[in-house]
Amino acid sequence: MTDTIVLTGRTLRHVTRSLDTIITTAVTPIAMMLLFVYVFGGAIDTGSVSYVNYMLPGILLVTIASGISYTAFRLFTDMRSGIFERFQSMPIARPGVLWAHVLTSLVANALSLVVVVGVALLMGFRSGAGPLAWLAVAGILLLFTLALTWIAVVPGLTASTLDGASAFSYPLIFLPFISSAFVPTGTMPGPVRAFAEHQPVTPLVNALRGLFTGQPVGGDLWAALAWCAGILVVAYLGANLVYRRRIS
């Protein structure tokens, strides 16, 4: 644990010395939010719910998907710089190296999410959620970030180029667009609707939206947690397998 804390301090210093990474992570989701609310929002029927309230959960997931690409970037940079070999020659816990990058991802993405929510408030986002609901929202976003971060570890360790290390995040960024994040799934054609309703982003968005509005989340919450937990377990095991092979 001590080794992980020390190594996390190292990676966090890298982030604080290049705050543009957090700003860049937040800029794209904010630009999307402005575009959808002020350009497309009037053409999308979301009933009595304002469009900024409707689409914010999806924007938060896009923010996380954008942010984790920097985890792969930092890991790739460490692999190429030879710092991993230096760490292996030192009496430190090997898992601490990976966990330092993962914990840094959680902190950096949390800061980006705060920025995005702040802009949403300026745009008119309002929530009737109580403290417990906000804690539930934070927990879901934390779990989702953790799951995607462990996915990011794999290309960070295995990519042969910097572009390859970060390109994996593009499908994750676009996945919310084929879900209930920005338009009701009932308006989609049959095959697209079937995919949208049975992929992990839709229950996540529905659960977050229900928590924000104080509505019952029902099975969406359990489906969202199941998806996040399943992805986390598979990604964690895969990342550690790749890590052991790379350092052996």
TrEMBL record:
<keyword id="KW-0813">Transport</keyword>
<keyword id="KW-1133">Transmembrane helix</keyword>
<feature type="transmembrane region" description="Helical">
    <location>
        <begin position="56"/>
        <end position="76"/>
    </location>
</feature>
<feature type="domain" description="ABC transmembrane type-2">
    <location>
        <begin position="20"/>
        <end position="246"/>
    </location>
</feature>
<feature type="transmembrane region" description="Helical">
    <location>
        <begin position="221"/>
        <end position="243"/>
    </location>
</feature>
<protein>
    <recommendedName>
        <fullName>Transport permease protein</fullName>
    </recommendedName>
</protein>
<keyword id="KW-0812">Transmembrane</keyword>
<dbReference type="InterPro" id="IPR051784">
    <property type="entry name" value="Nod_factor_ABC_transporter"/>
</dbReference>
<dbReference type="InterPro" id="IPR013525">
    <property type="entry name" value="ABC2_TM"/>
</dbReference>
<comment type="similarity">
    <text>Belongs to the ABC-2 integral membrane protein family.</text>
</comment>
<feature type="transmembrane region" description="Helical">
    <location>
        <begin position="21"/>
        <end position="44"/>
    </location>
</feature>
<dbReference type="Pfam" id="PF01061">
    <property type="entry name" value="ABC2_membrane"/>
</dbReference>
<keyword id="KW-0046">Antibiotic resistance</keyword>
<feature type="transmembrane region" description="Helical">
    <location>
        <begin position="131"/>
        <end position="153"/>
    </location>
</feature>
<feature type="transmembrane region" description="Helical">
    <location>
        <begin position="97"/>
        <end position="125"/>
    </location>
</feature>
<keyword id="KW-1003">Cell membrane</keyword>
<keyword id="KW-0472">Membrane</keyword>
<dbReference type="InterPro" id="IPR000412">
    <property type="entry name" value="ABC_2_transport"/>
</dbReference>
<feature type="transmembrane region" description="Helical">
    <location>
        <begin position="165"/>
        <end position="183"/>
    </location>
</feature>
<dbReference type="InterPro" id="IPR047817">
    <property type="entry name" value="ABC2_TM_bact-type"/>
</dbReference>
